[in-house]
Write a structure and sequence with these properties.
Enzyme class: oxidoreductase
Shape: globular
Keywords: FAD, Flavoprotein, Membrane, NAD, Oxidoreductase, Redox-active center, Transmembrane, Transmembrane helix
Structural class: alpha/beta
Radius of gyration: 23 Å
Organism: Urochloa decumbens
Pfam family, one: Pyr_redox_2
Number of strands: 29
Catalytic activity: 2 monodehydro-L-ascorbate radical + NADH + H(+) = 2 L-ascorbate + NAD(+)
Strand order of the largest sheet: 9-16-10-11-12
């Protein structure tokens, strides 16, 4: 996932990228994991810079070597889809032939919920590298101090783990009954909450913050909850969700009102045939869910929708509709889990939920078939196995037998050949810039990639 708007031009041999950030596009997962470690922390460009063909790191030097001019510190401020033009913050107007929207999403802020005083210097979010640097600095200023994490989802859970690793006491606050409420079952959540508790994290569930206490310098010293409880805080980390960046195109392209993104078809094409959308901002049909439109907030979706959009543009006759298998994962402490599919239907748990080195999981069964699967502590082959049974919607003949077999059910079913990805491209791309576009323009969920015509002028 990249963190900033990118503009990629192609006309004959003319290629360049424009970004509002001061660094080359990079992927976000490291920001809530390796970037926050107290020792040996990940830093650009050596870790999680976008990765191209042959595992090449797409550094500034790489762009130059590929003949791509990477222009930093420039932002697209408006778009005119009818005229096929874009306006940058420098006053430049750019015409395009084909446009890929990969503007990603932004972090929701407490101000949007009317929380007073939420602009304090020791309140942190985590969406881009600047946020990560601020969070790292805040942690350095309060060793052995107290942190309050607002939100029990991905960002909240991964940041809480990082804070504890940095020897900071953590209290997590969220309104749901358990952590990761959108995905975890109560049984799965119970394991992770117990594990976090053993590491020193305190959970305050079923409530929300209402305000802050501050000192004379304006820094937060306590979080005040709805029930009046005061939580001491040397720093606050907020992870309450994201919202797709669609504002440049609202009123010009058809939106998916239920999913909050730009609606696209199976080729990742919007309501305007010259415009495509990928990553967090795209609401696209999932074949596995009988064509139901979903907007998926994950780096894997960004990578694969990017690749598919580029294939659709370059070789439309050879590229079928995308057939994406929804996938999510996380790594915290010594734990690592993966989830495939949809958490709908009746759930059946399996494995050992008691070990400090666990291997457990769950199947979701709908209409007699596997709809989703979760696994903690699996091997590469085991994760692949659960993905196969979800992809195939494996039939469950005997529910009781499924519970007894557990992971063995997926391993047995996975002996069959894996299903087609739906990306009808044979071998490696024949275009020298194909992999570049797939990574720069859309591997990142917060990038904009554009193919446009030769007109380029200033107002």
């Amino acid at each position: 996932m990249a963190t900033h708007d990118v503009l990629l031009r192609l006309y004959e041999d003319d290629k360049y990228a424009v970004t509002k950030a001061m660094v080359a596009p990079y992927e976000r997962p490291a920001l809530s994991k390796g970037y926050l470690l107290p020792e040996g922390a990940a830093r650009l460009p050596g870790f999680h810079t976008c990765v191209g063909a042959n595992d090449e790191l797409l550094t500034i030097k790489w762009y130059k070597e590929q003949g791509i001019e990477l222009v930093l510190g420039t932002k697209v401020i408006s778009a005119d889809v009818r005229r096929k033009t874009l306006l940058t913050g420098t006053g430049e107007t750019i015409s395009y032939k084909t446009l890929i929207i990969a503007t990603g999403a932004r972090a929701l802020k407490l101000q949007e919920f009317g929380i007073q005083g939420s602009d304090a210097s020791n309140i942190c979010y985590l969406r881009n590298i600047d946020d990560a640097d601020k969070l790292v600095n805040a942690m350095k200023l309060c060793p052995g101090g107290n942190a309050v994490v607002i939100g029990g989802g991905y960002i909240g859970m991964e940041c809480a783990a990082a804070l504890v690793t940095n020897k900071i006491r953590v209290t997590m606050v969220f309104p749901e009954k358990h952590c990761m409420g959108r995905l975890f079952t109560p049984k799965i959540a119970e394991y992770y909450e117990n594990y976090y508790t053993s590491k020193g994290v305190t959970f305050v569930k079923g409530t929300v913050l209402t305000s802050f206490e501050k000192d004379m310098t304006g820094k937060v010293t306590a979080v005040i909850l709805k029930d009046g409880k005061h939580l001491p805080a040397d720093m606050v980390v907020v992870g309450i969700g994201i919202r797709a960046n669609t504002s440049l195109f609202e009123g010009q392209l058809v939106m998916s009102m239920e999913n909050g993104g730009i609606k696209v078809n199976g080729q990742l094409q919007t309501s305007d045939s010259s415009v495509y959308a990928v990553g967090d901002v795209a609401a696209f049909p999932i074949k596995l869910f009988d064509g139901d439109i979903r907007r998926l907030e994950h780096v894997d979706s960004a990578r694969r929708t990017a690749r598919h959009a580029v294939a659709s543009i370059l070789e439309p006759s050879k590229t079928r509709e995308i057939d994406y298998l929804p996938f999510f994962y996380s790594r915290v402490f010594t734990l690592s889990w993966q989830f495939y599919g949809d958490n709908v239907g009746e759930v059946f748990h399996f494995g050992d939920f008691t070990s400090s080195s666990p291997r457990f999981g769950a199947y979701w069964v709908s209409k007699g078939r596997i709809a989703g699967a979760f696994l903690e502590g699996g091997s590469r082959d085991e994760y692949e196995a659960i993905s196969v049974v979800v992809r195939r919607k494996a039939k469950v003949a005997n529910i009781e037998e499924l519970e007894i077999q557990g992971l063995a059910f997926a391993i047995q079913e996975s002996q069959m050949e894996a299903p087609d990805s739906g990306l009808a491209m044979v071998g490696k791309p024949t275009y020298a810039w194909h992999a570049t576009v797939g990574v720069v323009a859309a591997v990142s969920i917060a990038a904009i990639g554009y193919w446009y015509g030769r007109k380029r002028r200033r107002w």
